[in-house]
Amino acid sequence: MKAAGNSLASFTGRLSASCTRAMCRSVSLDRNRVPKALRSPPNRFLKVREPAARSFRVPQPTFDHPKLKLAVAIGLAGFTVAQCATSKNNLDSKFFRIVKQGSTKELRAFLEANSKYNIDKRHFLGWTALHVAAVNGNVEMVRSLLDAGADPNAGDDYVNVYRTASEKGLHTLDVMLHRESEFSESLRAQENYLGFTPLHYAILVESVDCVKLLLARGANPSIEASGHTPVALAKDNEMKHLLENEAEKFQLAEQEREAEERRRFPLEQRLKQYIIGQEAAISTVAAAIRRKENGWADDEHPLVFLFLGSSGIGKTELAKQLANYIHKNKTNSFIRLDMSEYQEKHEVAKLIGAPPGYVGHDAGGQLTKQLRAYPNAVVLFDEVDKAHPDVLTVLLQLFDEGRLTDGKGKTIECKNAIFVMTSNLGSDEIANHAIQLRAEVLNNKTAKAATGEVKITKNFKEQVVRPILKRHFKRDEFLGRINEIVYFLPFSNAELNRLVSKELRFWAKKAEEKHRVTLNWDTGVESVLAGGYNHHYGARSIKHEVERRVISKLAAAQEAGVLKAGATVQVVVHWPRPGESESEPTIRLRLKTGSRERDFVEIGDSPDIKALSHSFTKNINKI
């Protein structure tokens, strides 16, 4: 039924548009006198010219010809069918209709009757109610929506009539009619409105009262949407001065708010939420970022880190969390390049783009394309020691001056970017040195022994690590461009127990969500599983140990039919007794069978499990 309605709406819309164009041609009407929604779509987008607001506005049409009135009536009839077929929800339709009509009394009644309604609900074409109120210059409606909690900085998801029609699977005429009847008929259909905030629209329609109200209620006058800031859209000098002053005030207030937030919740604490251990590494990175955030860094040079240490100890994760902190989890703010893909000399073209005349010249480079889209990104060069030396030569200019020239000769400025390189060079030496330092701390019985905190000595850095780096990279100018070399050390015993506990909590959550099984464990389980740690593989060795000794048994019990939905499993440690063949503690699973605390049975003692285990052994022996 719905598909039939869509087909009918689309057919009626096309029919009405065709009739209208035919009638307009028959009476030789001027194109500028035909309603915007009923014109033939232009062949290409119009270029935005200064002042920017003029390119978005269209003249108001007049309807003084009888045949044109008839054409409009036919078009509106087709629109009515299209509206009935494409409206996603009657409640949403009523909400947006109230806002468009501008009745604050009806809005209050609607919100009282629907107390849990999302005030930032989007129209199925992408805009919010506050966008509608702002573009129509309705100050009272804007105030009512803001009082109800509407977001003054919400961006419009509507792009333009062609792109939106393609994404939504609608006819362009249907989108035009919805846009002009339910949003505004004074805007050009072919312009790009993606990301426009209510402030952008209020400036376009030159509603000074709406602009002042939005600014007073927290609208950000610095947001850039589709290449346009609010200031760029203002054509009145008084409006421009107002926006420039407010943008400066907003930026200062935002900086103060962020500074206060950093004082209350320092970067070190944020990073420790996601990374276990590595106290020294986190402190070093946080100190460098703090200098940059507070204006105590060289603005002409980007920040460059080199993370050294074994695999699986948090190097990549720290870079990810750094990007999330700086850019508030924005997409494209973290660029990761696996440098093992650049082991050959010619693969530098993959990084910055092929030169003219070569295949792939128009495609651009993997780094240059992403940096051009987000010049302030956090860029991770993972396993940089595996890249060809000539590939690293390209990075010299990038690290020194914060700019990069692509294969087309275009320069990308990225002085505010942060570059992080990771490497396993000297990982064995660093690990052995850290283990030795921990042993010395333990023997001295100092206060740091409990936490296992150690600090890499300057002599070790100069006499051991730097020669390794110099021997591999073969150039001092490359190493000289690195602001901080950060050392990642093997985990201490306390940190290993935290790693095991984190892994067990992960599997307990998954067991509850996927199988409705409750998983608990005794306190001694962490220390036993931590014994599977291998400093060459880092946290991955703990992950694999938990999977082998705990999760494999759970999977076998489920396959044998012993473990069912609603069960409770206790992970315990069996310590070997005198006379037993086992010399090492083992992990065992107990299944709760009754309501009392001691009503548990060993899962391994179940006949079904033993039969399944015997079957597995028999099949393995046949291989």
UniProtKB/TrEMBL annotation:
<dbReference type="Pfam" id="PF10431">
    <property type="entry name" value="ClpB_D2-small"/>
</dbReference>
<dbReference type="GO" id="GO:0005739">
    <property type="term" value="C:mitochondrion"/>
</dbReference>
<keyword id="KW-0067">ATP-binding</keyword>
<dbReference type="Pfam" id="PF00023">
    <property type="entry name" value="Ank"/>
</dbReference>
<dbReference type="InterPro" id="IPR050130">
    <property type="entry name" value="ClpA_ClpB"/>
</dbReference>
<protein>
    <submittedName>
        <fullName>Caseinolytic peptidase B</fullName>
    </submittedName>
</protein>
<dbReference type="InterPro" id="IPR003959">
    <property type="entry name" value="ATPase_AAA_core"/>
</dbReference>
<keyword id="KW-0547">Nucleotide-binding</keyword>
<keyword id="KW-0040">ANK repeat</keyword>
<dbReference type="GO" id="GO:0016887">
    <property type="term" value="F:ATP hydrolysis activity"/>
</dbReference>
<dbReference type="InterPro" id="IPR036770">
    <property type="entry name" value="Ankyrin_rpt-contain_sf"/>
</dbReference>
<dbReference type="GO" id="GO:0005524">
    <property type="term" value="F:ATP binding"/>
</dbReference>
<feature type="domain" description="AAA+ ATPase">
    <location>
        <begin position="301"/>
        <end position="445"/>
    </location>
</feature>
<dbReference type="InterPro" id="IPR003593">
    <property type="entry name" value="AAA+_ATPase"/>
</dbReference>
<dbReference type="InterPro" id="IPR001270">
    <property type="entry name" value="ClpA/B"/>
</dbReference>
<feature type="repeat" description="ANK">
    <location>
        <begin position="194"/>
        <end position="226"/>
    </location>
</feature>
<dbReference type="InterPro" id="IPR002110">
    <property type="entry name" value="Ankyrin_rpt"/>
</dbReference>
<dbReference type="Pfam" id="PF07724">
    <property type="entry name" value="AAA_2"/>
</dbReference>
<feature type="repeat" description="ANK">
    <location>
        <begin position="125"/>
        <end position="157"/>
    </location>
</feature>
<dbReference type="GO" id="GO:0034605">
    <property type="term" value="P:cellular response to heat"/>
</dbReference>
<dbReference type="InterPro" id="IPR019489">
    <property type="entry name" value="Clp_ATPase_C"/>
</dbReference>
<dbReference type="InterPro" id="IPR027417">
    <property type="entry name" value="P-loop_NTPase"/>
</dbReference>
